[in-house]
Amino acid sequence: MLGITLNERLQIASSKMLTMLSQMIDVNTLFVAIHDEQTNEIIKVYNRTEALMQEGAMPFRESYCHHVCKSTADVLIIPDTTLDERTATMTITSKLGATSFIGVPIVLKHSWKVGTICGMDRTDHAFSEKEIEALHVAAVFVGYVIELERMAYVDDVTGVFTRKFLHESFQGLANQHSVVCMFVLDIDHFKMINDRQGHEFGDKVLRVIAKRIHDALYSTGILFRLGGDEFALMSSDPTNREEALTLAQQVLDLFSSPFAVDGMSLFVTASIGVSWYPECGVQLQELLRYADMAMYSAKHAGGNCIKCYDPQQEAAMRERLDLEERLRYALEHEELEIHYQPKILVKDGSIQSIEALTRWRDASGAWISPERFISIAEESALIVMLGRWVLLKACRQFVTWEEKGKAPALLSVNVSPKQFQLGNMVQTIREVIQETGMDPQCLAIEITEGLLMHNSMEIAEELRVIRSLGVKIAIDDFGKGFSSLSYLHLFQPTHLKIDKSFIDHMLHDPGQMSIVSAVIHLAHNLNMSVIAEGVENMEQFNRLKAEGCDYVQGYLFAKPLPAEEIERFASSYLKHGDKRFRVG
Prior knowledge:
Blueprint: H1 8-22, E1 29-36, E2 41-46, E3 58-59, H2 64-70, E4 76-78, H3 91-96, E5 100-108, E6 112-121, H4 129-153, E7 161-162, H5 163-176, E8 180-187, H6 190-197, H7 199-217, E9 222-227, E10 230-235, H8 241-253, E11 259-261, E12 264-266, E13 270-277, H9 284-300, E14 306-308, H10 311-332, E15 336-345, E16 350-361, E17 367-368, H11 370-380, H12 382-404, E18 410-414, H13 417-422, H14 425-436, E19 443-448, H15 456-468, E20 472-478, H16 485-491, E21 495-498, H17 500-505, H18 510-525, E22 529-533, H19 538-547, E23 551-553, E24 561-562, H20 563-576
């Protein structure tokens, strides 16, 4: 897909072969020409002692090499270039005058012709079989050198340049230009593609993405694969921040249309981080690190966007990366905790369900907010590991309570949309049920309505399979997002959970109260139960009870508690009760 890498090794190899050929072919000129058909340019010409073309390029189709590569024969001989219709009118012919010409192509695998080895003589020269054979041997040798260079400098999966070539080419570009921009690009949720379709399919996706970027921007910048689904684009075209952002937007726009892979139309997005030399740094590692930080900032913002490196964000990014490592360690060593919060059946005040919630107290004893570490887990894909651990731990605890005769009717566990996107939730739930002996009829998973907006038909099928296991589906934080009512019919959840933000203000805001009332009646008309979360006072409870809400949850009853404490709370609650919530 890309032009070959040109370096001193190729020049040395060309020089040695031309020196050998000069002893076997008696002509005025011998040279190696390397070309790039995509840019229609001869990009380098070597003779025995030097690179004849040090800068610039000449049109490939205005060269004799074009006719060598276009020919179906393995050698092109033109006895007199001034008389041959292919070369007589060419500018180079008028400059050189009558010459005898011979050329053989340099051919790589897949029949890719990347250049020629040519000889020219001002006298009438009848090229012998021995001379032709010598040219072929030389072409094979130079082609072998080029292939070796490609193995080191061109990524085998995507055909774009490697990180190694980025390191070798950066300084030369920086020396020639006052500004060099570095763009680091990462495919959003690419792990999900590999997990669901396999790595071979994933490699094909990377290949078509790289090809689209390269084909659109090969004259603007050089594309490199850094590893996995991460790429870098290096360009000296932008001269300031605004121009850099414009180029980054051109890259992002390339993801607005689907990619065709194995007959499938695949929509993917990307996150892009931008840094530039010399303002952000003068060393390549600095630019890559800063562009990488900016890229992760783009991912944190939801992906499918561009962020420029901001020195003020570095401390926050370092703190975030540190927290990610600590979270990984805490997961691997099971240092997280699960707390449980009861859900109260409004009609009789009984504890009918219990929700498992993850809590993290670090080594210093300080509690880390779930909002903080859950978002980090989602960005780093640790959410799959975390989600499975929570589900497994909570189900084990529920089974223990059942064996003691102390279990409520239902256990609910929160599931992040990223667990569906990055993992196989159906398989995870099946494995946990089998491993723990959990009755699936006693399990509910709570999903946010944002999940419903992502690949709705695919998610609908996964939820259908989960429901077929007997597991219940609850829509958490309902009304907070932007889901269509049609999704409720498509996904058929058993419960809707009204977000706390509506409960907080419903007594003083008629609009919020109208929404709460409408959700309750909507759910009942669709044969769903309604849970109100964040209930903190009796006024809220009584109003929800009057509206027909089925379940309530909040600090009015109990905050989330560790397993031992929630067990004691439930025992006390069942024994003594609370007359405020009892009927009769």
